[in-house]
Amino acid sequence: MNIDAKDIHYRDLNARIRRAVADGDKSVVLDHVQGQRYIGTGLGPGVDITINGVPGNDLAAFMNGAHVTVNGNAQDGVANTMNAGRIVIHGDAGDILGHSMRGGKVFVRGSVGYRTGIHMKAYQARFPMLVIGGTADDYLGEYMAGGVIIVLGLDCGHASPVGEYVGTGMHGGTICVRGKVEPYQLGREVGVDELQKSDWTFVAKVLDDFRATMNLDGQQFRREDFIRLTPRSSRPYGMLYAY
Description:
- By secondary structure, this protein is of the alpha/beta class.
- It has two helices and eleven strands, in the order E-H-E-E-E-E-E-E-E-E-E-H-E.
């Protein structure tokens, strides 16, 4: 089903999407999207949404298994508290991408804003993954509790692909960064080491998926170009609280 979203209020647009899914439509194409919020919120498996335009805040919030493709950029709060599903963004994304995300996969071809992956966590069998093709601004992985974030730094030259305060408050999960990261860029709670062979087996499989999805056939990745950031403690602020 195709829906022309031009000049449609976000509530009306989301109502149309829900009606289409309820009527059995498994593939919904949205044209002329102009900042409408909450697209894909709570949608379950078996539904594909293609967005032509720029979706507004909280794209795919609380999503439970649907697939969303954005042929352009996305605004703040993509995948907020997402449980399952897949999001592919062929442009850039704004701030707080993957906020409290609990499962599923998000691929961004371009760059992302501040506080990406804040409080991202794994939950039971759910394991969230973020892959960022470009760069990430400050506070990447803040208070991260699970899952994996991969930053590739494509097209950023010799500059660091991440900002400052990476992993501040981090107490779970893994951040893999391709490129140079200085100690001053890292939160105190983060440990740094090389990507081990066992890690690379998993990461390489994810990157094969990203490469195929983004048509990066000529792009090669090497284990030695990555560093791995992990938390030094599962309770970095334990001494600040009463027991």
